[in-house]
Write a structure and sequence with these properties.
The chain is α+β, with helices and mostly antiparallel strands. Helices cover about 35% and strands about 15% of the residues. Strands 2-1-5-3-4 form a 5-stranded mixed beta sheet, with helices on both faces. It binds FE2/S2 (inorganic) cluster (FES) (2 copies).
Length: about 160
């Protein structure tokens, strides 16, 4: 017998969402299946590929590993909540400009991790950028263009 649903309230991209869901639902399932926010990608579902990264209180976290029920007191930001209306975040602009997108599957997490990095440190060094990029597996192996996009933002020092 399936456990009874529980009422869950989550603050996602500045909006409060309330749903009756399975008690053990992960944040990734909540986002994709309940809210239709499919920007966070399901790769391995095991905490290894990094494609499901979101920000939880400004920190990058793997949503496939997070029980949604633990996050009722947190502010969650997905790729859909980055940028402002039609204005892209500078890292999104830079990734377009540098062609840092192939199939695009890893791109949301590359942006989420970069946004967190540039919020912490507007001019990160190469090691910090490499660490942020390495948190996500790009199956297309196009890391050079992604690195160049990160470098462009670091050189500009813009975070919004
Ligand atoms: S889907 Fe979460 S780390 Fe791969
Ligand atoms: S662009 Fe295809 S996985 Fe990275």
């Amino acid at each position: 017998m399936n456990p009874a649903p529980r009422l869950l309230r989550l603050n996602i991209n500045g909006q409060c969402h309330t749903r009756a869901v399975a008690p053990a639902i992960t944040l990734l399932d909540y986002l994709r299946e309940e809210l239709g926010l499919t920007g966070s990608k399901r790769g391995c579902d095991l905490g290894e590929c990094g494609c499901c990264a979101v920000l939880v209180d400004g920190q990058p976290m793997l949503s496939c590993l997070l029980p949604a029920a633990d996050l009722e007191a947190s502010a969650i930001t997905t790729i859909e909540g980055i940028g402002c209306g039609n204005t892209l975040h500078p890292l999104q602009e830079a990734m377009i400009e540098h062609g840092a997108i192939q199939c695009g599957y890893c791109t949301p997490a590359m942006v989420v991790n970069g946004v967190a990095l540039f919020e912490r440190e507007p001019h990160p060094d190469e090691h910090a950028m490499q660490t942020a990029i390495a948190a996500t597996t790009c199956r297309c192996t196009g890391y050079n263009a992604i690195r160049n996009a990160y470098r462009a933002v670091a050189a500009g020092g813009e975070t919004r």
